[in-house]
Structure formats: C-alpha cells, structure tokens
C-alpha cells in the first residue's frame, strides 16, 4: 500500500471509530504523523486527498477539521466526477437514473406530504406549451428533485443531483431537436404525479420507468 493510501486509511479509521467526529479538529500535523507512524509528507498528501472529497476541511491559520460528513456534502465529489465525463458516457448515467428513480417515485407515493404534492402540481402547471428549452430543462430538474425530496431519503437526493448534470445536456439536445418535447414531458410528469397522489407506488414506478426510458431510447437512436 502506498504511504499516502496508508495515511488515508488511518485517518478514515479514526473517523469511523468515533475518535474523530464531525466538526472535530485534527491534532497538529507533527503530532498526528508521529502518532500514526507516518511521515509528515504522507500525512499532508492524505489530507489533501480527503479535502478534495469533502471529508476534511483545511482552514488556513486555524487547522484541519472533519466536515459535517452529511451525504449531500460528501456526494458533491460525485458531481465533479460526472462533469469530467464526456458526452459518450451520458447513456451510462441514464441507466443509473433508470435504476434509481422508479424506486424513488414508489417511495414518494407512500411518503409525500400534501405540501410537497402541491409544489409538484405547480411545476406541472407553470410550464407553458410554448416554453423554451431552458425553461423545460429547469422545470424538469425541479420536478425530479421534488420527487426525490418527497421520498424522504436525503442520500438518494444527493445521488440524483450528482448524475443529473450529465443528463442535462441530453435533455437540452432533445428539446432542441425533437418536436413536442414540452407537451410530452408535461403529460409524463402528470401521469407520474397522479400515481403518487393516489398512493399507487407501482404505477408511479412504471410511469417513471417509461419517462426515463423514453429519453434514453431517443438518445440511443440519435447517436
């Protein structure tokens, strides 16, 4: 194991064991390196790596702290990774969405609140038939984010936020080149929401599967 990797594993062990908790300040570099049996250089590189994935927060002039470790913060690194992928891998992110979002819609059918349902209804009524591509994409992102929030699962919200960046370009492309995109999107959103409103988890799952698969299949043919 490389020395930097060893340092990462040891710091991770301190966090998972509870020795270091969210918000805790790490010991001084020299003290921590001696305690873990590492060189200061290896420790420094490990801290840099863990800072990049939002596990640690280096505050210059103050010290290094463990972050809140909440899922949204940690999964910000996923968004960064997604942004680095080229368009030829966007289908893989659609596959991830197709695996995740039908289950999320099913959860929302059982867990949504009246207020969440009302907000989702507003999104389906706010989009005019002649809306431009930018408005369509923004509305679509809010709709899917709203359903994820209605599932009551913060982790899945963060995961979907991460993969949506790659699929956004495909949504724009579809909106530009395919006639009837606004009407089709609104009809599919309404069907998903109808199922969620009556608490029919399996219908919500089926409609969401069809909605995402439609974009995915169009993209496969368009390539």
TrEMBL record:
Chain ranges of the HTH gntR-type domain: 1-69
Domain of life according to the entry: Bacteria
Keyword Transcription regulation annotated: yes
Matches recorded under SMART domains: FCD, HTH_GNTR
Protein keywords: DNA-binding, Pyruvate, Transcription, Transcription regulation
PROSITE patterns: HTH_GNTR
InterPro entries, alphabetized: GntR_C, TF_FadR/GntR_C, Tscrpt_reg_HTH_GntR, WH-like_DNA-bd_sf, WH_DNA-bd_sf
Protein's recorded name: GntR family transcriptional repressor for pyruvate dehydrogenase complex
